[in-house]
Amino acid sequence: MECQLPKKMLSWESNMTIKFFATYRDITKCKELTIPAPPDVWALLKRLGESYGEQMRKKLFTKDGGEIGEDAIVLLNGRNVTHIDGKDTLLQESDIVSIFPMVAGG
After folding, report:
1. What domain range is 32 assigned to?
2. Mean model confidence pLDDT for the chain
3. Strand partners, 17
């Protein structure tokens, strides 16, 4: 699946990979995207919200927009960012960020 880099994401300098799963893949129409690395997870999520619109923002953030939403799972190199520094987790070149929705089953 060919992904287009949102123009708003071109201002960062070194590249990282974002992997989208389930609902996030539907919203972005993209499985994986290589982009310039933002300084931290919060900057990345804010930019994704700006680039992919209201539907993405509703999935990524709490209603007040101040925190990562309860239904969003954000992994940095396989570790949940809630177990690192949350939204302030620093990003660097060659990082892989995976974004999943919370799932439930029975």
Report:
1. 14-101
2. 88
3. 34, 96
